[in-house]
Each structure stands twice: as C-alpha cells, then as structure tokens.
Amino acid sequence: MEKNSLSREFTVRGVLLGALITLAFTAANVYLGLKVGLTFASAIPAAVISMALLYRFKDSSILENNLVQTQASAAGTLSSVIFVLPALLMLGLWSGFPFWQTALICAAGGTLGVLYTVPLRRVMVVQSDLPYPEGVAAAEVLRVGEEQRHRSDASGAGSPRSGLRDLGWGAGLAALFGFLSGGLRVLGDAINLWIPVGGVALRVAAGFSPALLAAGYLMGAAAGIAVLAGLVLCWGVVVPWLTAHATPAAGQAVSDLATQLWSGKARFLGAGVIGISALWTVGTLARPILQAIRSQPARASGSAAMAGDETDKDMPRSWMLLIGLAALAVLFLVVNGFVHEHMPELADAARYGLTALCVLFAAVFGFLVAAACGYMAGLVGSSASPISGIGIIATILMALSLLALHAAVPAFADSVSGQLGVALVLFMVSVILAMASISNDNLQDLKTGYLVGATPWRQQVVLIIGCLVGAAVIPPVLDLLYNAYGFAGSLPREGMDPGQALAAPQATLMKQIATGIFSGSLDWTMLGLGVAVGVVVIVLDVMLRKAGRGALPPLAVGLGIYLPPTIGLTLTIGAVLGFFLQRAIRARGQRAGQPWAAAAEERGLLLASGLIVGESLMGLVIAALIGFSGKDAPLAIVGEGFAPAMWLGLLCFAALCAFFYRRVLGK
C-alpha cells in the first residue's frame, strides 16, 4: 500500500489513546491470566476501538490506527510475567508486589524483547511466506475501517461503529454474567460432577465463563479437540489409575484424593508434554532462525533504506544500542537490588558476579527465546505459541545452572540454594518471559504494518512505549487482585475463602518445578512420562498434518492435562461452537456472497474479544470492591448454599452460546 498522510502516522493523540487502551487491556489480561492461566490478544479489539474513537477526526488515517493497535498489543503480551511473579508470594518472600522492582523488570525485559526481533523483521516478515494469522487479520480490520471512512454511508455492517457495537455486545453480556455470578452470586460459575466407578471416581466439570468460551472459539477446532484429548487422558485414565493405587487419609473422600493426586502428580505429566512440545517447536525452527540472523543485511547497505523508503526502515542501530544498554543496566540494578535484599551475607564482589551471571543468562537465553517465539508467532499466531512451555524450559535450565554454580563456587554455597535459590530462579524467569512474550507479538505487529504500509521504526518505538505503560500498571493491579482474592497457597489475610483465591496456575507450576529441583524432590517420573506422551502426540500431529487430516497440537494436549477441567472443557465447548459456526458461515456464504461471510467472521472475532474483555474488567471491578470493603462477597444477595445457582448458571451460559451463534449469523 502506498503511504500517504505520513505526517499523521505518529501523533500525540495516538500515543495517548494507545496508552489508555494499554492500561485497560493490561489490567484485564492480568486478571484473566491469574484466574485461568490464559491471556487474550488485544491488537484487533484495540484497532476497532481506535478506529471508532478517531473516526471523527478528518486527518486520522489507517497508519495512525495501526500505531495505536501496535502500542496496545503490549497489553496482551507483557502481562505474561504474571505466570511467574505470584510464585514469590507463594514462597513467602514477598508480602505484596514492590512497584519499582516489578515494573522495572517488566519494562527492561519487554524492551529487550522488542530490540531482539528488530534484526529479524526483513527476513521473517518481508521475505518469508509465514502466514502471521493474527497480523493479517488485524490488517484486514484496519483496511475495512479505512474503506468505510471514504464511504458516504458508514453506518452499515462492517463499519467501525458496527464493529464497536459487536465488541460492546460481547463485553456487556460478559460483564453482566460476571456481575450476576461473581458479584451477586445468583449464578453458579461451574458444574462439577463426580461419577463413581468401582473404587475410583470420574470427574466431569465445566466452567460457565464467557471469557473461556471466547478463548476456545479463537483457539479453533483442532486445538479444542487436543485440549479435550488431554482432559480425557488425565481424568479418564491417569487420575483414576493413581487413585486406585493410592491410600486415602482417614475420612478422605475419593473425590478429594483424586483432586490431590491431580494437583501433586498428574499436572507434572502435563508439564512434561508442554516442555517437550516447546522444545520440538524450537528445534524445528533452529535452522530458519539461524539463516534469518545470518542473512540480515547491514543497516547501511540496505538499498531500500538508502533510497529513503520509509516502509523499510527499522530502528537505527545506534538507537538500539543505547536503548539496549540502558535496559541491561536497569536489569542489572534491579537484580542486584533483589540479591542484596534477600542474600545480604554475600560479599560485594560475589553479589556483583552473581548478578552479572544472571543477567547474562537472561540476555543470551532471552535472545534465543525471542527468535524462536517470533518465528512461532508467524507460523501459528501469537495466541498459540507455547509461552508457558518456554517458561518451564527457562525455569529448569536456570535452576540447574544455579545448582551447578552452587556446587562449583564456594562463595555461593550457602546463598544460592534452598528457597532463596528458587526465588532468584523465578525472578529471572519473569524477565525471560517478558522478552519472550513481547517478541512473540512484535513480528505479528510488524506484519500488520507491512501490509498497510506503516513505518517499522515507528512501530518499534510505540511498542516500547506500550511496554513502559504496561509495566507501570501491572504492579498495582497485581496488588489489588492479591488483596481482594489472594492466590492459591498465599492469602493476604486470615479468614479469607481459599475457594475464591485466584489459581495462578502457571506460577504454581513454576514454583513446584524450581522447588523440586533445589530440594531434589521433583517428580521426574511424571515429567518423564509426560515427555513420552508428548513424543507420541508429536508423532501423531506430524502424521495427521502430512496426511492432510487435520492436526493435534501437542501443546494443547498438555494444557488439557495441566489446566483444571472446569477450564479445559469450557475451552472445548468454545472450539466446538466455532467449528459449527464456521460450517454455517461457509454454507450461507455460498448464497450470500464472500463479503457477507467475511463480515460474519469479523463479528465472531469481535464478539469473542468483547466476551474476554467484559469478564476481565468486571472481575477487576469486583476485586476493587472486595479490596475496599474487606469482605469476600460484598455484593452477594444469596448465601453459598443457594442450590439453584448452578442450574441458573448453566441455563444462562447455554443462552449466551445461543446468542453468540445467532448474532454471528443473524445479519
């Protein structure tokens, strides 16, 4: 696309609007990630909101809207640090989230993630045939909005106002559902059935979560089937087998024993599947990543750059060097402060040496992760990239490295061990996850910019701005949620209801792995079995893809084992809903035409995004009320024993699914 209105691409109002959207979506992602272990991609809804709000400005353009969504996309990625940081509270090391420590590691890690992917843009985006599904979709949304801008009738389907209306429907219904269930408590949030079979019990459970329904819809049928396969393997085979060979405690119900065995053993099976799946993905991408790095031309020799083509100009290397050094310096100071605070017995030289080694590990491993995640984002999309698996690998490697350092250097014998060693591992893994998540998103945004004719270096600058804004909002939101709900295994006050605590599933898993490595108690058997299961699933996936019979994503199978069934089955329901909707859209599109089919698909995408945003934001509102009131359920109008709640929740959830289906096809 030929660039016009270049002067209106990078604007103050665009940066401010992007910052506001980043604040809202970062807060929503932090809540959703702590509750269910999933976050949502915010680029497309940010693009729609940007188009709707900038629509009245005659001098606004597709390029300005693109920069807004680029900046706001940091909200869907940087919040991945919540997959590790809550573990520091579970360890008892923190009593809250120190603002500067938390914000600076997020900002430094995110900034390095942006810089690491800059040299890969030309090869992986411009010259490659990677599909970049979310980047292409975001570009299409921007193009639709730009086309409607130039039409006299901008009120029809597909206009920015129509898109915002669909997003609003989803957000409003999800917020209402969340208010009735999490606020008034008149709707149940899940159905949970135990079916006795001999001496064991099979569990069938599904959550009534609009956000999970939407996440399953966006995942697609293949991933949904894979999650279901993991769920059936876990609760239909592994947990019953473990239960049959375990001895319950006195008075312990079979259902309680099964849940205990799933949490303490079966989840490590899922961790093994996730870990080997991530390793497989990185291994298959090693050659193209190295080729991309080797073929990256020198900045000064680029013919396009010399010709003054703004659409092919990356951030100047001098800027990259200065910003990178500043980020590494900030990271060094923060890690040094963390080590000094929790390992005061270390001499200054030993502390500086340990800090330098940790930063070096994070920088080197972070670059490898950035390259792998950037390529994976182009291959399967940002949402499907195995960030959790990358975190598991980083946790294991960092823990083993510190154990080796503890054994090899006498100065660290007493400090880099036990709980403090676990804490340092988790602290550094949070930095690596920030790098991984941002790099996972950056090339997707650059693909969108490439398709609409944007300036790469401007996108890279605003994404760094998005990292800084997101980093500033993450600590207070984490504090708010922790004081309102608490985390599984860590409650801020006595008398709080553990059932209302946020699961923080990835943080719990990272802590278990790191603690198990340092204490020597890690259940390598279940991890090893998970690796074996993962290998089998990988082989099946390769065979299915080669035969053209679909796919069985190994990571999704691992998630089905690892996540609670109230999450996994709801994701599958969303995926099945998406499968039938896609069939209906294709069938009706043959009669109504391709433009109608494209508009219907966009409605589904925007409705799903709205469901996620609405539930997440309502969760934050309820969290604020709990925090200010000091009560676990300040808005509840019924007690915990309100029997119809579960069935009312099921009825309303079914009605929501029906509305979603009709809304997408109804125009």
UniProtKB/TrEMBL annotation:
Chief place of localization: membrane
Positions of transmembrane segments: 12-32, 38-55, 75-93, 99-118, 167-187, 193-218, 225-246, 266-286, 319-340, 352-375, 387-408, 420-440, 461-482, 524-544, 556-585, 605-629, 641-661
Keywords (A to Z) from UniProt: Membrane, Transmembrane, Transmembrane helix, Transport
Subcellular location field: Membrane
Membrane topology note: Multi-pass membrane protein
Tagged with keyword Transmembrane helix: yes
InterPro entries listed in its UniProt record: Oligopep_transpt, OPT, YSL-like
Protein name per UniProt: OPT family oligopeptide transporter
